[in-house]
Amino acid sequence: MAEPIRLKTPLTDNDVEGLNMGDRVLINGIIYTGRDAAHKRLYDLLNEGKELPFDIRGQIIYYVGPTPAKPGQVFGSAGPTTSYRMDAYAPALIEKGLKGMIGKGMRSDAVKEAMKKGKAIYFAATGGAGALLAKKVKKAEVVAYEDLGPEAIRRLEVEDLPVIVINDVRGNDLYIEGEKRYRKG
Amino acid sequence: MREIDVKLITEKVRSLCIEANTDLGEDVLEAFDRAIQQEESPLGVEILKELKENARIAREEKVAICQDTGFAVVFVEWGQDVHLIGGGLKEAVDEGVRRGYREGYLRKSICHPFTRANTGDNTPAILHTEIVPGDRVKITVAPKGGGSENMSRVVMLTPSDGVEGMKRYVVQRVKESGSNPCPPTIVGVGIGGTFEMAALLAKKSLLRPLGTKNPDSDLNRLEMEILEEINRLGIGPQGLGGRTTSLAVHILMMPCHIASFPLAVNIQCHAQRHKEVVI
Ligand code: SF4
Hints:
Oligomer: heterodimer
Order of helices and strands of chain B: EHHHEEHEEHEHEHHEEE
Bound molecules: iron/sulfur cluster
CATH topology of chain A: fumarase
Number of helices of chain B: 8
Radius of gyration of chain B: 19 Å
Structural class of chain B: alpha/beta
Number of strands of chain A: 7
Strand content of chain A: 25-35%
CATH architecture of chain A: Alpha-Beta Barrel
Distance between the termini of chain A: 26 Å
Number of domains of chain A: 1
Number of strands of chain B: 10
Helix content of chain B: 25-40%
Order of helices and strands of chain A: EHEHEHEHEHEEH
Strand order of the largest sheet of chain A: 2-3-4-5-7
Helix content of chain A: 25-40%
Number of helices of chain A: 6
Shape of chain B: globular
């Protein structure tokens, strides 16, 4: 098994072009959280032609709704949520410069197309590994939509957050290819 | 007649909620180890190791294994010689869930079906009660995550579908679920009874410890056959390709009506959380 690739955010076109389906990646730097309700609000802002609450260019959004942090904990358990619910909103964000998404589960054809065109990557984090992933978060602060509780948009500083490249910018999909490789009969 | 105060029920449910969500059973960890030995995909092995490490951290630091700390499904086997005093059982269980989810820093994931407004305290619990002989009370708390529950189904097959039709349906369900229920999964199968009983059987089958045999040897063989077929699908850990799509298939069966053939498939993710206590 090849060593994981260390990446620092924000991501450049060069960074994402160098990634291939199946690569293990350790993400370092700032990432943003957002799931269902936050996505809807971001999308509405774009439709109204308004500014987003943070500069999305080169950034990564992590689809996560953590448990409340315990006293002494930076961040609660924080595994990925299923991504398809964000499919309706993702292409518009990619068009605005979003370079990466972290979640679990397959994306729609429209999102895959948008990733090819806009040069963005879809990563999977291990679903259910919430305790392990929480430890990689070194700092967390709410940047928008505090009223959404666990669904608020947070800016996270992460160290070596382990993810895997599912969709690269060349249109490959690990969910499809992986299953094909190991299917019997 | 033996008496039990509702406060004791509340306290037990409270601690079971926290324990179940932070301390993954040894049987599941052993199943991970067996899977690591058998997995052909190097990426799959890495993921299985991550799951072990995750469980270790959760146990040591007493934090949630997964951020989806689930719907609190509570099974109570109530000895008929026990008298509950000081209040109602349902309220006592809900209060235990309320405290457990607050004090354990667990996520509150229960909401109104239409407005999606969160109930704020992870209640109500799903309470299944059964009256049994004796003067003991057994409480089992099994938090159930949404991702894997969403992939579950009840279907009324026709009697002519037979065993083969049943097998096909179960394997197809796992195939269509793909990476969504966080594989490796445990597949709970309920056969027979009525529409609602099939679902309950499927859920109850998940309480059997992993690595144990079905006491019915025919069903045991069937479990092995279905598991083998599932693990030929290639979905693998997290759906990234590999051998370990499911860790086990568990079946519970009972007689059904001459006109029907109910089948339920309850998919359980690797965060196979349940704890029990006998009072
Ligand atoms: S399916 Fe299970 S492991 Fe995956 S996110 Fe839901 S509760 Fe957690």
